[in-house]
Amino acid sequence: MARFLGTADLDLLEAIFEGLPDCPFFVKDSGLRYIAANPAMLRLIRRRSLGDIIGLRASDLFPDHLAARYEALDRQLLATGQPIHDRLEQTVDGIWLLFARIPVRDRNGACVGLIATAQRMRAGDPAHIVYQRLAQSAEMLEDRFDQPLALRHLAELARISPSQLERDFQRSFGMTPSTFLHKRRIEHAIGLLARGLSITEIAHRCGYADHSAFTRRFRSVTGLAPTAYRTAMNDKRVKSG
After folding, report:
1. Which of 70, 94, 120 is the last residue of a domain?
2. Which residues are paired to 118 by β-bridges?
């Protein structure tokens, strides 16, 4: 029996993407559960068969910071119904992928899920030189997340102007370099919270001048203060255990 989500033929889509080894593909329903994927996607997340991911969410397959990032994009698409194109994302093992997400609609036009495709970035491909430069800039920010933002230096390395770098970041990541840096700091901070470090120590390790500056930024990104977030993580761990 054929599988459908809204007007999308899942069997046909899987057949189309089956032979594209550098193009991960998946379909999610409105609950953000995976319901279709191709072999490239399975290899990316180290699963052997489609049955290993059907019904799961990103939080079941990816580290927390990646899952949160992916599902934020998914929810944005479901809420607006607007496609998301040319979004550069780093996934497992440091692999950079250029994503596109488009809505799946039913016969009444309602958004009932999404289709995502991605293309793996290849060194030396002239068509992706902008994205390669952006990936290099993003990697520098991630490697030096505890340092102040040096936008002019990043732009010089990318051989473009600071204003062009900011525009490229906004288009490809949906945020400025400054916001990108703070989000990566918070992602690292979440890992440190799980290790039981003090809030003051975490703030210092993540490049914030003091406890209060870190707490304000953490709350703006996650919606919770660091201590409340740690409590929620511990509660989740107890329930899952």
Report:
1. 120
2. 99
Which pair of structure tokens corresponds to residue 43? 């290899």
Q: Name residue 102's amino acid.
A: I
Q: Are strands 34-37 and 96-105 parallel, antiparallel or unpaired?
A: unpaired
Binned at pLDDT 50, 70 and 90, residue 127 comes out as low
The first and second tokens of residue 1, run together, are 């029996």
pLDDT one-digit tens code per residue, 51-84: 999 999 999 999 887 888 898 889 989 988 989 8
What span, in angstroms and rounded, lies between the C-alpha atoms of 241 and 234?
10
SS3 100: strand
Could you tell me if 83 and 99 are in contact, meaning their C-beta atoms sit under 8 angstroms apart?
no
Residues 233 and 210 in one domain: yes
CATH number for position 110: 3.30.450.20
Tokens describing residue 219: 């709350």
Same domain, 70 and 139: no
The token duo for 60 is 């079941």
How many domains, in total, are found in the chain? 2
